[in-house]
Design brief:
- It is an enzyme of class 2 (transferase).
- This is Pantothenate kinase.
- With about 300 residues, the protein is an alpha/beta fold.
- The chain has one domain (about 5-310): P-loop containing nucleotide triphosphate hydrolases (Rossmann fold, 3-Layer(aba) Sandwich), CATH 3.40.50.300.
- The chain contains eight helices and nine strands.
- A seven-stranded mixed beta sheet has the order 1-9-8-7-2-6-3, with helices on both faces.
- It is globular.
- Bound molecules: adenosine-5'-diphosphate and the ligand CC(C)(COP(=O)(O)O)[C@@H](O)C(=O)NCCC(=O)O.
- Adenosine-5'-diphosphate binds near residues 39, 42, 46, 95 and 97.
């Protein structure tokens, strides 16, 4: 496609990082400590060059949306309704959605216009293992049929409609199932919804067609992208790190993986990637990429190489 015909403006790393000159914010030591806590592998260069300009752009979008809402409220003679601004973050398993979401939360809540930023992950809306087992879907976690998509859409719709208190179920990667916990969202200034399915539509759910999608309630969306070979490597690396950490816990669903040799464990992770997550990427996630308002394209070491912004 010629550049003129693409709906995106494309910035290479250098061009994008130059936009940080217009970011009237620096990071102090407390901020840096907080950001380091999000992910030890995250480099501060990456935060400064890529995510600070991104938080600035988002801040401008939030303010513009607020202005538009105020026009409507003025027209209707209403007071400020405090409707949250909703940002969706999509992309493959292991691309870094969760890290991106937590980082953006930390950066966005530093802006005085929107100090209260909440984060929700769509895995809370996976069906519990009991249902997945009954339906023969245990090896389809993350595929459209593994989610209570109506519950998820209703949740986002409730938050966006300004409801004062909305609850979501919580998934645990450790027990590999839905827990008894709930996540309560109470009228934040910004809600970040992170999950591989946030840009999917009714077409992606032929078993349960629905007319209202998550995207109907998103004010902005980001797709985090990388080549599938890299994604597979990152998935295996994370699996190996979990093996040394969380899987050691005897209550972990994957505790038995700690008994495998190094090579067997790599084989296992590679198999899960091929059979489940890589397949889901090709079939159900990658086709939604061009629905995003902004695409972050990562290269080796998670360094963002290109940023594409919808015109
Ligand atoms: N910006 C980053 N820099 C370095 N490592 C990262 C970055 N983002 C993610 N990672 C690493 O990549 C892996 C996947 O990240 P995660 O946020 O858990 O992905 P997802 O939520 O998409 O499954 C993790 O091991 C994480 O530490
Ligand atoms: C829970 C997930 C489906 C991701 O869900 P999301 O938060 O993106 O909705 C995924 O991390 C997962 O567990 N996939 C199943 C195969 C595996 O164990 O990696």
């Amino acid at each position: 496609m010629s550049d003129l015909l693409t709906p995106y403006l494309s910035f290479d790393r250098e061009q994008w990082s130059e936009l940080r000159d217009s970011v009237p914010m620096t990071l102090d030591e407390t901020d840096l400590e907080k950001l380091r806590g999000i992910n030890e592998h995250l480099t501060m260069n990456e935060v400064r060059d890529i995510y600070l300009p991104l938080s600035r752009l988002l801040n401008l979008y939030v303010k513009a949306r607020k202005g538009r809402t105020q026009v409507l409220e003025h027209f209707l003679g209403q007071k400020d309704n405090n409707v949250p601004y909703v940002i969706g973050i999509a992309g493959s398993v292991a691309v870094g959605k969760s890290t991106t979401a937590r980082l953006l939360k930390a950066l966005l809540e530093r802006w005085p216009e929107h100090p209260k930023v909440e984060l929700i992950t769509t895995d809370g809306f996976l069906h519990p293992n009991k249902i997945l087992n009954e339906r023969g879907l245990m090896k389809k976690k993350g595929f459209p049929e593994s989610y209570d998509i109506r519950g998820l859409v209703q949740f986002v719709a409730d938050v966006k409609s300004g409801k004062s208190r909305v609850e979501a179920p919580v998934y645990s990667h450790l027990v590999y199932d839905i827990t008894e916990d709930t996540k309560v969202v109470q009228q934040p200034d910004i809600l970040i919804v992170e999950g591989l399915n946030v840009l999917q539509s009714g077409m992606d759910y032929p078993h349960d067609p629905h007319r209202v999608f998550i995207s109907d309630f998103l004010d902005f969306s980001i797709y985090v992208d990388a080549d599938s070979e890299l994604l597979k490597t990152w998935y295996i690396e994370r699996f190996m790190a979990f093996r040394k950490g969380a899987f050691q816990n005897p209550t972990s669903y994957f505790h038995h993986y700690t008994k495998l040799s190094h090579d067997e464990a790599v084989q296992t992770a590679s198999g899960i990637w091929e059979e489940i997550n890589g397949k889901n990427l090709e079939e159900n996630i990658l086709p939604t990429r061009e629905r995003a308002g902004l695409i972050l394209q990562k290269g080796t070491n998670h360094a963002v190489q290109t940023v594409k912004v919808r015109k």
